[in-house]
Amino acid sequence: MAAWGQRLAGVRGVLLDVSGVLFDGAEGSGVPIAGSVEAVARLKRSRLKVRFCTNESQKSLGDLVRLLQQLGFDISEGEVTAPAPATCLILKERGLRPYLLIHDGIRSEFDQIDTSNPNCVVIADAGESFSYQNMNKAFQVLMELENPVLISLGKGRYYKETSGLMLDVGAYVKALEYACGIEAEVVGKPSPEYFKSALQEMGLEAHQAVMIGDDIVGDVGGAQQCGMRALQVRTGKFRKISPEFTASPPLFC
Amino acid sequence: MAAWGQRLAGVRGVLLDVSGVLFDGAEGSGVPIAGSVEAVARLKRSRLKVRFCTNESQKSLGDLVRLLQQLGFDISEGEVTAPAPATCLILKERGLRPYLLIHDGIRSEFDQIDTSNPNCVVIADAGESFSYQNMNKAFQVLMELENPVLISLGKGRYYKETSGLMLDVGAYVKALEYACGIEAEVVGKPSPEYFKSALQEMGLEAHQAVMIGDDIVGDVGGAQQCGMRALQVRTGKFRKISPEFTASPPLFC
């Protein structure tokens, strides 16, 4: 206990990853991870600030929060940092009209975005919509641009559903990067902007916060590079330690 | 002319890429590139040895040769080096049972291969068969292996059909490499074994041969790394010079 107290000294806020930490997804639904509903409730009863930090890009923010509420979690939309709203801001600021390689479940987030005559590609966890035809369309859009812009909602390698491990958006980002000879701009974890935005919402400095996640790159590595502490849970996609991906070893739960 | 004579001094054999050099593919068929039927005929009337070096992995060798013959080319199966037969040899030698992420058009090449209880993945230009479901199956097979083996028939970024540029197998290889944290073994161009095998069939040393292709990495770079000379044609997928990929600048046709 002394060791934990020392490791977490000065922490005033907790950033919680969602998928693989609070619940495991399943076709259109999900199952809470044992103890997680109560853990969130306890955190919220404590003096710690809590924010939910997800790279969810198959469901709209509203759908995700409704699902989590149905599973018993105390959560509201205003407590969540998610990549789709941040992406819409970037698109508007830069006058970008995307070809959307995304899941139908998140399409409503882009309702206000002009997608005519695309001058960039936005890629998210499209699941079954990662058909050859859709990937090839994204590829062709990028190859026709003088300055190709590929914006990715996260860059996860895979995630866990109750049925097993599933390929995540990062794999398909790598495919387009290689085919086009370009590098994607990542909106979402592990980009520093994502973590800074979440910290700002909490009114905390990096050294006052700890990130809890199951992804050694997106959660642990990203948070550490921002000066935060990080805890890796052994649920979700957790398989083994991959220290080569992290600045320093994560604290395990 | 003097310059060309000097550059090609001592050349006794020509290795010809097929797609983008002899013809542009189209749905189930193709169109010869202007002048290519006659160019092959002239080469075959000359004293030069000729070999066709393809990474074709959507069609069986028999189907490819039949198509080329229908388009007017003087070509037979024995004159072609292709990755599928080489892959079958490797699978048998190493006792590997693949999950085949391939196009139905090439499935017959693997008729004699045991695919039960897979202990590796073979990936080729699967086209429309690059569905999320099939990619995820390949990913899950690899993640369940202690020593994951991914064998790729070529690693091309894209190729050209009459309808436009199309994503090639290399993009999907990168996706699986990233998701699984592994590196694929490439059978086909630009692997040195591929070019050595073709040279052996021709009875030539590397310095006696010139490779002609439209792919700066697979054709030009691969051949140069084996000590051959290389010519890049401006047909097929040719877009612009990408010197960063090559050991030395290619000779242009």
From TrEMBL, chains A, B:
Chief place of localization: cytoplasm
Keywords of this entry: Cytoplasm, Hydrolase, Magnesium, Metal-binding, Nucleus
Pfam families, sorted: Hydrolase_6 (PF13344), Hydrolase_like (PF13242)
Location relative to the cell: Cytoplasm; Nucleus
InterPro entries with a match to the protein in the record: HAD-like_sf (IPR036412), HAD-SF_hydro_IA (IPR006439), HAD-SF_hydro_IIA (IPR006357), HAD_sf (IPR023214), LHPP/HDHD2 (IPR006355)
Annotated EC: 3.6.1.1
Record field: catalytic activity: diphosphate + H2O = 2 phosphate + H(+)
Cofactor: Mg(2+)
Function, as annotated: Phosphatase that hydrolyzes imidodiphosphate, 3-phosphohistidine and 6-phospholysine. Has broad substrate specificity and can also hydrolyze inorganic diphosphate, but with lower efficiency.
Protein family per UniProt: Belongs to the HAD-like hydrolase superfamily.
Family annotation (PANTHER family): 4-NITROPHENYLPHOSPHATASE-RELATED (PTHR19288), PHOSPHOLYSINE PHOSPHOHISTIDINE INORGANIC PYROPHOSPHATE PHOSPHATASE (PTHR19288:SF44)
Protein name: Phospholysine phosphohistidine inorganic pyrophosphate phosphatase
